[in-house]
Amino acid sequence: MLNFNDISLADKVWVDELLGYSGFMGTEYCFTSLYIWDKIYNSKICRYKEFLLLRSISGEMVNYLYPAGKGDLKESIEMLIADSRSIGHSFHITSIPTEGRTKLEELFPERFEFTSARNSFDYIYDRDNLATLSGKKYQSKRNHIARFKELPDWEYERISCDDLNKLAGQIDECIEMNREWCKINKCYDNSSLHNETCAATKALKNFTELKLRGGILRLSGKVVAFTIGEPLNKDTFIIHIEKAFSEIKGSYPFINQQFILHETDGYKYINREDDAGDEGLRKAKLSYHPVLMVEKYIAKEK
User: Fold this and answer.
1) What is the mean pLDDT of residues 50-62?
2) What integer is the mean pLDDT of 162-179?
3) Domains contained in the chain, CATH given
4) Do the beta carbons of residue 237 and residue 229 sit within 8 Å?
5) Tally of CB atoms within 10 A around 100
6) d(CA 106, CA 72)
7) Contact, 159 vs 170, CB < 8 A?
8) pLDDT of residue 162
9) Exposed, middle or buried, 89 (CB in 10 Å: 0-12/13-18/19+)?
């Protein structure tokens, strides 16, 4: 039987190793994503041979993450199916990449019914496009940034682990800004925004241990925006958190561009994660013109 446990920082080393074998581009295949959202999705992980397995429970629904690693994939899937039977639930597997769907159809012909999980598709952008925002299609972004730059005393600042005393202050400021953002956006009346705020706080409090990179945008010394991300694989950088006060015109596009410019040199692609089905967020992400989408599927037994 499989032994699923809570996700701890001590798991990062072996989880990163197994995720590296697969090289999937989806946000679910990053330790930080799993760790900062674990309590929200009630997720637990298990190492089975050279595969990372994950089980999450939401209400009456039990979901399993498509396994990441190397070895006998069919065996690992069969172990997950047996686990679902042992706890009295039907088998659902989520975040299946396109190549994973092909593999499942090959290993288990006619056994699963697949559904496209559009709300979970990740948006992938060309890094240089986001850094330069050149061309007619980014004119509105450049206009918003120009308006922000007209404000006095703005400053971009790297969240750096080089000076731990400075880092502690930066983290405290970002946590306070996150709280203020939550209050302004009434996130306690919106479970999705509340969950995002909690995940952001957890990422900030474990910034060093998670080996994250961050950037801050200040106006007259006050933090008005921050971003957190990290390398996902050898050519892709992932943005986990981006917060800005939307009433300050241009703050979102400017922190986006500044972070890309200063913290992602050497990467070809930027993964800005999914839109969770939010129409406003979808429109915003599409406005940056992704070069591809990471398609994902859900499978359940017929």
Assistant:
1) 90
2) 94
3) 9-121 (3.40.630.30), 122-273 (3.40.630.30)
4) yes
5) 21
6) 13
7) yes
8) 82
9) middle
